[in-house]
Amino acid sequence: MDPVGTEDPSSEPAKRRPAPYRTPRVALIVVLPENHVLSADRLAERLRAHGDQQVDVVIACAGQPANLAALHQSVGDAQFLLAPAGTSSADLRELAMRQVPGDIVTLLTGAPVSEAGADSELFMTS
Amino acid sequence: MSALRALSVIVPARNSSATLPHALAAILASELPRDDYELIVVDDASSDGSPELAARYADTVVRLTGRRSGPAYARNRGAELAHGEVLAFVDADAMIRPDTLPRLLRMMSDHPGLGAVSATHDHASPARNLASQYWNLLLHFGDQRQAGTGGNMASPCAAIRREAFLSVGMYDEWRFGTAALEGIEFGKRLKDSGCGVLSNKDLAVAGLTRWNLRSLCREVWSRSALLAQSLGYQRTRSAVPSEVVFTLSRSLAPVFGLMCLVAFSAAFLPRPNVPANVAIVLLGAIALNLPAHLFFVRSRGLSFAIAVAPLHLLMQAISGLGLCVGWLLRDAVGDRAPDAATQAYSEVGVETWPPVPRAIGT
Q1: In Å, how far is B360's CA from the nearest CA of chain A?
Q2: For B175-226, what is each residue's pLDDT tens digit?
Q3: Three-state DSSP class for residue A112
Q4: Of B92, B309, B331, B337, which sits with the fewest C-beta atoms within 10 Å of its C-beta?
Q5: CA-to-CA distance for B158 and A66, rounded, in angstroms?
Q6: Would the CB atoms of A94 and B52 count as touching at under 8 Å?
């Protein structure tokens, strides 16, 4: 896990790209504004949809996730983008997009805690 | 996004940071429930931060790198990733209405024989300058006169069944590397395949682009030249009469004839009156294109019609020149095609991302 801050919004993935490559790089951004959750099942389902492709996962949270260790366990090689509490979903998406080097980037926003089921608590943010 | 979603909305974008947020916000404001469609934005190598802006709204953002590939290419890449049974292509400078998507879907559902439905251009434009007002009104004029069952997919918003889209070979990304007429060509191919295409004038979409004289001239020139060079004037005119090039060029031949007549008459006068001759030609040009000018009067009043009359004449002249150059190019160099390197990569079958453009049928 590589926690990623928001200090370097100007970094452009295209500049880091080395040589031409054959297949698109795929990334998944999980967006968790304050008091939003995402079930592990939903995340797994989304990852399964990409089959054998390698997917870079970035979890963009507003505030400190309450369960950082659990998150780490669930998505071992995910990057975490920790934005200040209160950051909106749209801002989180934009910030994460700046950090992700993918050619095909899918964005998945969690559901408000009030609408989520009990199995979603794994990914609740503070 | 679920694989069961009925609709995929695909938005190609290139350096669209000024209009893209408005276009995407309008899509999200649709009356269609958010879970019923996926929103895919395909960024065509923008340098203005369009992908990051798109990420604020979209489910999927595709970043095409390298040089510009064109909207046909971008739409095809978006369609390849789409899950919906119906694909809706919305331009990055188009603002749909809340009921546009549900109505498109309803029409497709009510008419199973219909392969595609396209919206028309709204006469109103958020940009208040004269050039933008004129251009949107001109596009609207063509749409209103010719809307119905035609092959026009050159709309800022069009929906098509995925099956039909794939069966005709998607957009022609090989010949149309820039934003011009790819929808015309695609709609024509769709119609030729026997697929029903409806241009619905009750479904209007506003254009957000702020046009100026230079961009208008460039647009009219590229459309006219490309139409003559790649599509064929007569064939396209019969298939897609609402195209703006035909609106502009409809009275060109009579105007040219009038100019020849005036010039010929002047040769026999002892003291030719040049201003009078020019005035005759200009008045003749306006008279021969009266329906468009009357439409401007009806829509915005006499002062607006007088203000845009010189602009309209200029666009007609540029369109005529563009058509002539296109015809010459067609004879001299043939149809449009990508550069030699791209053709070589395609022939060898080089696999890379973004993929090398493909010709239809390969």
Answers
A1: 22
A2: 888 777 888 888 888 888 888 888 888 888 999 999 999 999 999 999 999 8
A3: strand
A4: B331
A5: 45
A6: yes
pLDDT mean over B358-362: 76
Looking at per-residue confidence, does A39 or A74 come out higher? Answer: A39
B351 in contact with A, Cβ within 8 Å: yes
Pairwise CB contact (< 8 Å): A21 & B353 = yes
The CA–CA distances, whole Å, from A21 to A17, A103, B177, B352 equal: 10, 11, 22, 6
- State the number of CA atoms in the 13 A half-sphere of B85 facing the CB: 10
Distances (CA, A) of B185 to B139, B239, B362: 18, 10, 17
- Structural contact between residues B314 and B214, judged by C-beta atoms closer than 8 angstroms: no
* Structure token digits, residue B299: 């829509």
Q: What is the ipTM of this complex?
A: 0.86
Any B CB within 8 A of A49 CB: yes
- Asked if omega into B354 is within 30° of 0 (cis), the reply is yes
Instruction: Say whether residue B142 is in contact with chain A using an 8 A CB cutoff.
Output: no
The position carrying tokens 């790198």 is: B65
B63 Cα to chain A: minimum distance (Å): 5
Alpha carbon B217 to its chain's center: 15
A22 touches chain B (CB under 8 A): yes
Pairing relationship of beta strands A26-32 and A104-109 according to DSSP bridges: parallel
Q: What is the CATH topology of the domain spanning B7-211?
A: Spore Coat Polysaccharide Biosynthesis Protein SpsA; Chain A (3.90.550)
Distance from CA of B78 to the nearest CA of A (A): 10
pTM for the model stands at: 0.87
Query: Residue B347 contacts by C-beta under 8 Å, 6 or more apart in sequence?
Result: none
Q: Give residue-wise pLDDT tens across range B122-132.
A: 988 888 899 99
Q: What is the pLDDT of residues A19-50, one digit of tens each?
A: 667 789 999 999 999 888 887 778 888 888 88
Q: Tell the CATH topology of A2-8+24-112.
A: Rossmann fold (3.40.50)
Interface test with B, best of A8, A29, A107 (most B CBs within 10 A): A107
